[in-house]
Structures are given as C-alpha cells and as structure tokens.
Automatic annotation (TrEMBL):
The chain crosses the membrane at residues 24-43, 55-76, 97-114, 120-139, 160-181, 193-215, 244-264, 276-295, 307-325, 331-351, 372-397, 409-430. This is Na+/melibiose symporter-like transporter. It comes from the Bacteria. The keyword Membrane applies. Belongs to the sodium:galactoside symporter (TC 2.A.2) family. Keywords: Membrane, Transmembrane, Transmembrane helix.
Amino acid sequence: MQASPDSQATAAAPPLADVRISRLHLAAFTLPVLLFQAIEMAWRAYLPRFLNLDVGIALGLVGALMLGARLLDAMADPLLGWLSDMRPTRFGRRKPWMAVGAILVPLGALPLFLAPAGSAFGTIVIASLLLHIGYSFIITPHGGWGLELSRDRHQRTRIMGAKVWFGVLGSLAMLGILAILERGFGISLRAEMALVGWTIALLAPLTVLCVILLFQERATPVAHAPRHPARLFLAMLRDPAMRALLMLYMVTGIGDAAAASSFLYLVEDALSLERWGASLLLIQPVVALVALPVWSRLSARIGRRNVLMISYGWQAVCVAMLLALPPGAPLMLAGILVLKGLGWGVDFMLLRAMVADLSDKDADGTTVAGSYYGVSSIALKIAMGLGSGGVLWGLALVSGEAWDDLRTVAIRLLHCAPVMIGAVVAIRILRGRGQIERAGSDVAIA
C-alpha cells in the first residue's frame, strides 16, 4: 500500500470514532509494540544479570543505571508528547518523531546488548541513553496517536487491549526463541543478549516504517496558539481523576518492574532452577493471550474499576504463593505462573483506556492526547525505575556473607513484596473515594 499525503483520505486511514476498528487495522497499527516489548523484556529481565555477570558491572551501578534511564524517560516523554501535539508538520504530528526514534534505537541497542566483558561503565551509559531517547521518540507519539483512534470508550478498551495483546505475542515469540536456545542448545546469556540486540535494532526501523507508510494521522484540531507545556501539565494534575490514575500507574509500575528485574534471581538463585528462566517466562504471555480478550469484554459488563480491583487482588494472591514454594520444583512454579498469567496485563490495558477517556475532554475541541500519554508515562517510567533500581540494590545488599542463611528468603521477599503491597494500595485507591464515573465513562473518582 502506498503512502499518501496526510490531507488525503485513503483506505489505509485509521477508522473514525463511530466505526468498529478491524483486527487487521489494530494489528498493523500495533506493530511497534513488538519493539516496545522486546526492549522492556530485555531491559528489565535480562539486562541487569547480563551487565553484572558478563560485562562485569557492579550490581549497585546496574541498579543506578536502571533508575537513571527511567528518570530520563520520565523527563522526555511529556515534552515529546507536547511537541507532537502542538508542532504539526507537513508530514504529520507523530510521524517525524517516530522516524527519528527508529534511527536512534539501533545506535543504542547494538553497543549495549553486544557489550564485551570489561566495557567501561560510561560506554554502557551512553548506549543506554541513546536506546531510551529513541524509545521515547517512538512510544510517546505512537501512544498519543493510539489514544486518538476512537472516542468510544469500549473501542478504546479494544485498542489498548490489542496493544497489550500484540505486545504479549511479541514477548512470547522472543521468549520462545530464547527458551529453545537456553534449554535445547545451552546457549550462553551473552549469545542470547546479542540476539536480542540485533532483533531490537531491526524491529525499530521496520515496525515504524510500516506504521508511517500504512497509516495517516486522523485530522484533529490543534490549538491555534501552542499552550505552554508547564501550564498544560499542571492543568492535568489538578484533575482528581488524572491524579488517581497516576497513583495507580506508580504502584503498578513499581511492582511490575521489581518482579521482572528479580525474576531470574528468584528462579536461579532462590529456587535452584538454573537455565529455566526463559522457559518459565513464556508461561504468562501464553495465558495472557487467551485471558486478555475475556477481561476486555468483562470490563464492558461490570466496569473497568471492578475489573481492575479483581485483577490486582488476583495478582497479589498468586505472587504470595511464591513465598511458600519449595526449591527445585519447576512444575509447581509453572502452575503458579499459569494462575498469575490469567490477570497479567489487565492493569496496563485498562489504565491506558482510562487515560484516553480523559484526553479528549477539552472544551475547545483541541486534542492533546500525546501530552496525556506523556504525563501518564512520567509516573510509569519513574515507578519502573524505582522498582528495578530498588530491587537490584536490595539484591546487592543481600549478596553479602551476613545474609548467607537468609538470602533465598530475602530474594523471595524482594520479588513478591512490591506486587503485594502495590495491589493493596491500588485497591484502596479504587475503593477509597467512591464510584468511578463521568458522563458514561468510568474514569473519574467522584
């Protein structure tokens, strides 16, 4: 399909608000999510251990890198969202930023994931910065674009559900390959990271190019005079519904990142299941592929708020089972991960849909979806940095001789506690201030 000017309508243009978006359109638009998931999976689950054991960087410095990169994301995302909202070009509002990101990501991914032993920490930092800046250039404009695809709240749940679903599918493919290499061929972690690095470097230009060529940006009003970003962001933060969503992003992001960054340490060090990591990581994506559409339909029946409370509670109960799991029991761990996978990804799917509902409420009809996406990413990226950095610092602390007798217990607690505490806080937020409702949309906490 050929590209065409943004001002012209073609069959490839995203459907309008009153048209059900086809699965084919959702699949095509969601292609960059495959890239996002590859980066997130590698960054949170594999890279900390690779940098520590293979490259030779102290675990405390790795934790600082995890946090620092997320803080950079948190600063870049809202600014990029505002720029893509307020600075249209003849190529569109979102496309130019995504194109730049597609160039930067490979420049960071290859030196980071192919780093030789003994690489200078400064080199790793520079590569990480390039990767994350490029990542932000793609994910924030693409996220704002996704919020604009429909104004119907059930369609928005479908759109955000599709993004999570296809992201899970991408994770599943990558983990499947790593599991085969790990269990079938005994491939080293260094070789696995080289494969991940080349995959990310190729996915960035390919997926972005597909979206740029196949899709037009829908015509949406832009403010005649660009609003100052600080005033715009403060206005968002004065909205109690947005504040509640940002708090949910914080507790969700901390728990998710802490669990991901400590998973290989839990499996290999605390549960004595060496070289089982990729195989066990496969389980949750497989289950989520089946479960996410069910949760999406359920949210249309009983409301997003109720579904969120159920999913948070379910995750907490499943994670708590890991505290009593005996070592050397891969089948029992697999069973727990199957149960946990039933609620995996539900929180991010519904929180993004709620942000989309808030993003189109401007009285003057202008759209600032990119800014809303960017502001929500501030909370999420800071939370992920705190979750990853905090758990890695905790793992570094318990690696000393004084912890010999309690190390396995400490690793389990570091993995489980952020998810369990976060679930309690999230349910409290959802219940503590009454019903979530606004003009037919269950977004605002009244």
